[in-house]
Specification:
about 1300 residues; nine-stranded mixed sheet
Length: about 1300
Amino acid sequence: MLILDGGPALTAFKLERVAARVRHAGYSFADLSAHFFYLVDVERKLDKATLEVLENLLDASDGSASFPNRFQDAVVITPRSGTRSPWSTKASEIAHHCGLDSVRRVERGVIWQFGNGGQNVQTDAAIIDILHDKMIESAATNFQALLKTFEDRSPGAAGFIDLIGGGIEALKQANQLQGFALTDQECGYLYDSFLALGRNPTDTELMMFAQVNSEHCRHKIFNASWMIDQKAETRSLFGMIRQTHAENGAKTLVAYADNAAVIKSYPASWFLPRSDSSEYTQITEPLHMVLKVETHNHPTAISPFPGAATGSGGEIRDEGATGRGGKPKAGVTGFSVSNLRVPGFPMSWELGEQSPSRIALPLQIMLEAPVGAASFNNEFGRPNIAGYFRTLETLTEQGVTNHRYGYHKPIMIAGGMGNIREQHVKKQKIQPGAHLVVLGGPAMLIGLGGGAASSVDSGESNERLDFTSVQRGNAEMQRRCQEVIDRCISLGDNNPIVSIHDVGAGGLSNALPELVSDAGLGAKINLDQIPSDDSSLSPMQLWCNEAQERYVLAIAPQNIERFRAICVRERCLFSVVGEATESLQLQLVNDGDMGHPIDTQGNPVDLPMSLLFGNAPRMHREARSHLPTFQSNDFDDVDVVDALDSVLRLPVVADKTFLITIGDRSVGGQIARDQMVGPWQVPVADAGITTAGFDSPSGEAIAIGERAPLALINPVASGRMAVAEAIMNIASAGIAELSDIHLCANWMAAAGEPGQDAALFETVEAVATKLCPALGISIPVGKDSMSMTSRWHHDGEEFSVRSPLSLVITAFAPVADVRRSVTPELDLSEKSVLLFVDLAQGQKRLGGSALAQVHGQVGTETPDVVDPCDLVSFFAVSRHLLAEGQMTAYHDRSDGGLVITLLEMAFASRCSLEIDIGDQDEPLAALFSEELGAVLQVRDADLEDVMRAFDAENLRDRVRVIGHPEPGGDVVRISAGNTLLIDRPRSEMHSIWSELTAKLQSLRDEPTCAVAEHNRIKDLSDPGLHASLAFDLKQNPATQAILSGTRPQVAILREQGVNGHMEMAAAFDRGGFRAIDVTMSDLKEGRRDLQAFKGLVACGGFSYGDVLGAGMGWAKSILFEPTMRAMFAEFFFRQDTFALGICNGCQMIAGLKELVPGAEHWPRFSENLSGQFESRVIMVEIIDSDSILFDGMQGSRMPVVVAHGEGRAEFSGEGDLNRLKATGQWALRYVDNYGHPTERFPFNPNGSPSGVAGLCAADGRVNIMMPHPERNFRTITNSWHPKEWGEHGPWLRIFQNARKFIG
């Protein structure tokens, strides 16, 4: 084994944060440092030349001789024992692609040194805990253990539980020790079943049964029989939800029968590479919608980053594994936690901290979990375009300090929507003899027992089992799996996938049996064929672990070679692990037993399928109603201005920028509306909206509704309001009719707590059997999490925190025309009025409101849906107004009340408001009540027509004019008749609203960047995003070339982990090219040659997960492979070609600068100055240069999206940038909203010197840039744009210029 010394593991500000934590723990040190080191497993000693390549690849030097001495006074952190890190998987693959065949595996660690001259820190548990995440890392305690990193270990033995000798008590003891979470009924069922079989069960069989039949997987409470208040109920919870589909399921294609729901959508065009030529082609057919929302609460509580990351990853797999393969498109993320207690930012309503040590604190969760979810979405390539964030922690009605309501066990919502082809909506029936395939990553000892662990209250399980149950993610591996699925999708009727299932809770032990059970079959599985990266796994661990990024598929024998070829092309691991059998028996055997009868005492599983799925006892629940009684709200001494300041700081109301800019919101090039609104990009959008393809105005919308605090008082009202809020949010989109909306319901409850079971039943009943039928909508998909209580003991006292009943509703709908959608941004170009629509019929209840929460109150009366018919009528009116273009802005009333609705519209528009809400007996209630309602902007000229529309739906008395906006001002004035309530600078209130996001960004990211972003609110003259074009948008410089009738080929090049190829292909297709899907494996294996192409485009994404520096692994796999090096060098040298690198492709081509004529002064790219992934819409200016892509565009300034974590240009020479400018190679730079070149964050998102954003070389033929123009070539995919732009935005011009250059 080699040990190589690497560079710094942390930037200076991140290292100082760790140092501060170490000091706070009471440890003194002279000089804290953290450096990477690399462990390299080699087959033989490397010669000098090979070692030099390896050192170059890792940017490291051989430290084998000196490392043992450095180890003595250091803390050494490695990936968790028994696992292989995602970094290792990708780095090792790069090494192999660079010709380092003697390198078996590379692993990376961090060595922490304290400069204390021999003081031992290796035994200080507190310090070690600070320096690593025990869920995914280990601290090496001695050098000899480090040397054994790559040693193969003997497999663990199969275990048996002696039921025959020890009786049912033996099973109950195993249940406790192994964390199976079996009920007494289930223990009795298993005992009887195995006695009937005449043998003892294996530990594999019991663990499998526990996961397959866990609450998490089988939703036992939702399928239970019920008795409420001694009255037997005839319906189950799930039965009532299914009723919504039975009554209003006409537009639903799949409900409750797959990994996700499928609903009908509008005809549009799929954009897919043809199977015969790999040319991207428009295929006109419906893009039906795939819908799913999951929770990942328990893992996020235990280890926030990996817990949330794998939550997002698992939901993405649900979409991909729907039917015979779906294509994930856009996502949502949400969080509910207890009070944050931000250091230096005290909130008067926050209670003193009390929390168990085994779960993360709320602040840690919100600093780490959103980044985890975002990082997986970013790397996979799914934009996150909606979400929510709520904090809640309050004493119970008894006022006992030890027992509270809150979210110590957080809610982590991960959801999304995708598309599926019509012929792939339904799974085909698996036939006996079908190959059963595992696609994706190898097995490892992670996530063992996660299904059961998520099914019990936090604190009820064993801490060791909590540790074992958390997974970790590898998004790049999942991206490869999805590329395999995408290639199968493109085959249409020839798709080789018969059926597909994701691997989640329970691992293969759940996924493979479910796959064949759905077809009424059994299976014989070869244990030895399951891919594994840990030789020590026992049969139970190998079969039941929840290693991520895996799918199971059924493939007909005659199609297996076609499928194999796809996997090889995508470099995606797969294995045929068994076959479907006509015998209804599940058999898990070893290699030698595949063709022979098995020995049940020598193989891990031999069970009838009916024992696993069919005959387990049904749960029965008995519950009594109990509603807590809180004191009435008392706001007699509350000042309006003080109350407003507090509400503006409450997390559920406050600015969510810190949650949003970390997530790529533009990848895929089909996002018409993300969270950010207007020229100043303020996060107040009501819904996320996507386009259905690249040539249609139709699309899809998604929005969230949740009102959990109301459930403290009235759970049924809380449920109804969640549904109503989701509808009010999605009403901003151009949906044709209410029945187009379909809901996903995620139910969270502290089951078993007093009154909670009855509240759950009554809320499901109210929502599913009354409200949804009244609205004419259905709930075709959902999820439940029934263990929302945290319990622990401290100093002999018992503590608990339980959540209120929490229903999170996600609304989905197809959109006929995404251009007929509105946002809270006010149109200030014409005189207008603001209409307030009150759907509460004048009621102003404050129970459970933000106002109550910031005053430490709960209350007794909550908002509710007064009349569902009013909601139906309002939706109909809003459809008419959108169709007629008479509603120019819209925002619903929700958290914080009417005053927050108005302020958020003013923040987005940077204008003044003159508001009169009319004479009020209770002005505070009028401002802060969170009843149903909305504010609409209407032009003065349209007011009469609008009022007539409301009158036609019998809503005239629900609507009144409350004021108007005034452009250019900074005052919000709100009166109640003659009483002036608020008269304050808008910017002052905006700054207060944004304080929380600035505080959290400064704790998580580089602090000066957080301050700079917050300070820009104070710049009242900031003009915002704008466009100043030096060319005519309507002209196409490539017209003559296109009229020649030829469509030259451009290679849309992707490496594993690239995710921006679809939008790039669409942009070049629109520009007049034949866009060809080309993988690096195509080039390396001779299926393609760059000689055949006029253009080469390296796309954005995370090639190899960026493990060896941004784009550098991709670049070095070319530089160190002679055939590839020669091919690329020849292409760049040719005078009839062009090349473009965007984002990750920019980093990669910059890494090839020694092959590009004239690129010797190009930079390399390093971590953003903020230390964070930045996804933003910023301004750029096109500079006069030799670039063939920017020909005729010089002097133009316009918005563009950026989405990267490592975009800061670093030049090796001091004068390199000036030389590039002098030689016409500097093409693009970041400017602020005034048009000035800038290094100031966030206008310059990465800190590149002088704002450099794009360069060229080779006489302007080879271009690199960090921004993403390919995602904005259609006007409707710009988050903000001038009204006068047509179908195409200005960024299409660079693709037209490329076509003009080729001629």
